[in-house]
């Protein structure tokens, strides 16, 4: 059924939480995560829906969960709606291909960000201090430059607004050191494996974020991974250091909004059909390349 931004896709299910673009429903020790067609920019959920966005991003995330399961366990129980709890079946056609049933975990409160290239908030921090999250980088690096080795640059998880980059030493005052060591090791491993795979298919993964939880005391991978909403994906053929890059993510939407007279507060402007079409074309392009 069509969705508007003020209604739930599964109103009769027990809501666990509603994020900017996903709905999470509670089934005791399990959760149902549903990717909607909503889209956010500048931390505002826009009134326009991107038809099919939730399905394609769910497919991309599930592809990477399958790809990475030899490196770390993840929270997925099933992607097949027919195996979901009985209460879900009245919404089977609504949530098909855009939902996953997962184990409920104890969330570890950090964003595990890995950067292989200098962009975004990392580049802004580097311009000011020569560092990102307390990591000293070589002088004279240009925007979008490839780093010598990928770096782990965690941030705190914000309930509202932007997450905040934090030096690892400071993070260790808040979270057990052994957990951070495991998360850093796994994040860097996951990034390297995914970046190598994507590069062979014409995609640069400039940076990405992972989230982790504890299940029976074990660190596992949760949330979504390696989608254009949680990563910077650049086409290799147009990559040029020293400038911002063409992107497979929602940069098309950000660029459109940036030229408007909008104060970046709710509810935000409607998106033109052409911007919506271009955005979906980018999402499909990256998925098709990854599946090659």
**Strand-pairing-aware structural class:** alpha+beta
* CATH H-level superfamily title of the largest domain: ATP-grasp fold, B domain
Q: How many E strands?
A: 17
State the share of residues found in helices, binned by percent: 25-40%
Radius of gyration: 19 Å
| Overall domain count | 2
Order of helices and strands: EEEEEHEHEEEHEEEEEHHEEEHH
Question: What is the CATH architecture annotation of the largest domain?
Answer: 2-Layer Sandwich
What's the CATH class of the largest domain, please? Alpha Beta
Portion in strands: 25-35%
CATH overall fold name of the largest domain: D-amino Acid Aminotransferase, Chain A, domain 1
Write a compact overview of the structure shown.
The protein is of the alpha+beta class. Helices cover 28% and strands 27% of the residues. It has helices at 53-68, 92-95, 120-129, 168-171, 177-199, 251-258, 273-290; strands at 15-18, 22-27, 30-35, 38-41, 44-49, 76-78, 99-103, 106-107, 112-117, 131-132, 135-136, 146-152, 155-156, 164-165, 203-215, 218-222, 231-235.
What does this structure look like?
The protein is α+β, with helices and mostly antiparallel strands and 292 residues long. The chain folds into two domains: 15-104, Phosphorylase Kinase, domain 1; 107-248, ATP-grasp fold, B domain (D-amino Acid Aminotransferase, Chain A, domain 1, 2-Layer Sandwich). Helix content is 28%, strand content 27%. The chain is built from seven helices and 17 strands. The protein has helices spanning 53-68, 92-95, 120-129, 168-171, 177-199, 251-258, 273-290; strands spanning 15-18, 22-27, 30-35, 38-41, 44-49, 76-78, 99-103, 106-107, 112-117, 131-132, 135-136, 146-152, 155-156, 164-165, 203-215, 218-222, 231-235. The strands form five sheets. Strands 8, 9, 12, 15, 16 and 17 form a six-stranded antiparallel β-sheet that branches.
């Amino acid at each position: 059924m069509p969705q508007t931004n003020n209604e739930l896709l599964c109103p009769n299910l027990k809501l666990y939480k509603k994020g900017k673009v996903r709905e999470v429903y509670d089934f005791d020790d399990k959760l149902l995560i549903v990717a909607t067609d909503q889209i956010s920019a500048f931390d505002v959920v826009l009134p326009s829906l991107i038809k099919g966005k939730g399905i394609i991003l769910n497919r991309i995330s599930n592809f990477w969960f399958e790809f990475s399961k030899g490196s770390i366990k993840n929270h997925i129980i099933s992607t097949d709606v027919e195996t979901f709890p009985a209460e879900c079946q009245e919404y089977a056609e609504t949530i098909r291909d855009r939902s996953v049933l997962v184990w409920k975990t104890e969330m570890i409160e950090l964003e595990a960000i890995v950067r292989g290239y200098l962009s975004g908030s990392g580049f802004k921090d580097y311009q000011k201090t020569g560092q990102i999250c307390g990591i000293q980088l070589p002088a004279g690096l240009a925007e979008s430059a490839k780093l010598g080795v990928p770096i782990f640059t965690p941030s705190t998880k914000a309930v509202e607004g932007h997450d905040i980059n934090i030096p690892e030493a400071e993070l260790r005052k808040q979270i057990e050191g052994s957990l951070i060591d495991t998360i850093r090791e796994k994040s860097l491993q996951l990034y390297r494996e995914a970046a190598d795979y994507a590069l062979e298919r014409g995609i640069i993964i400039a940076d990405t974020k992972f989230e982790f939880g504890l299940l029976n005391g074990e660190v596992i991978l949760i949330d979504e991974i390696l989608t254009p909403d949680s990563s910077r994906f650049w086409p290799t053929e147009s990559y040029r250091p020293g400038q911002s890059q063409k992107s497979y993510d929602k940069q098309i939407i950000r660029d459109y909004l940036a030229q408007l007279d909008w104060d970046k507060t709710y509810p935000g402007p409607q998106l033109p059909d052409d911007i919506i079409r271009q955005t979906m074309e980018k999402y499909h392009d990256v998925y098709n390349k990854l599946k090659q």
